[in-house]
Amino acid sequence: MRPKAVKPEHPLQWLAEPLLDEPTFVLKSWFGGRTLMLRGMHCLFLTTQGEPWQGVLACTFHEHQASLRAEIPALVQHPILRKWLYLPETSEFFERDAKHLVQLVKDRDPRLGIPPSPKKKRAAKKVRFGDKL
After folding, report:
1. Is residue 39 in a domain?
2. Alpha carbon of 17 to those of 27, 37, 51: distances in Å?
3. Range of the domain at 75
4. CB–CB of 51/36 below 8 Å?
5. Which residue has the higher pLDDT, 126 or 12?
6. Residues 78, 85: contact at Cβ < 8 Å?
């Protein structure tokens, strides 16, 4: 039996530390990065795949973008995933602003968090008697 592969720690995973004691916290691999989930909602997405996927995406709805950007001016609308805000790792105050976003998540700020998409049901594969499995 082969040992289970251990995924390497994500370079921005340190941002999750303040949430570790939260009972509903989940850190999950997602689209090549890590999603920080609280209360079953995607709150922040950590990504290091090169621009424009190099930093923290704030999972939010359009109606909350202006107030979040007023509070954290380095946040910009993501150039591809426009429904979310983006804090590029190249931002002058990245560490401070990223920690602030994590604190907002920890404080259960209603501006952060989107529900996951419903899972699509897979069609069962038909197997006929005599078919090779």
Report:
1. yes
2. 10, 13, 25
3. 30-106
4. no
5. 12
6. yes
Is residue 14 a part of any domain in this protein? Answer: no
Please tell me what DSSP assigns to residue 106: H
Q: Per-residue pLDDT averaged across 13-23, rounded?
A: 93
Residue 31 confidence (pLDDT) above 80:
no
The pair phi, psi for residue 98, each rounded to 5°, is -65, -40
Q: Is residue 54 part of a domain?
A: yes
Q: What is the pLDDT of residues 43-81, one digit of tens each?
A: 999 999 988 999 999 999 999 999 999 999 999 999 998
Confirm if 33 and 48 have CB atoms less than 8 A apart: yes
Q: Which burial class, exposed, middle or buried, applies to 81 when counting CB atoms under 10 A from its CB (0-12, 13-18, 19+)?
A: middle
Q: Residue 130's pLDDT is what? A: 55
- What tokens appear for 55 in the block? 């930093």
| Cβ-contact 114, 41 below 8 angstroms | yes
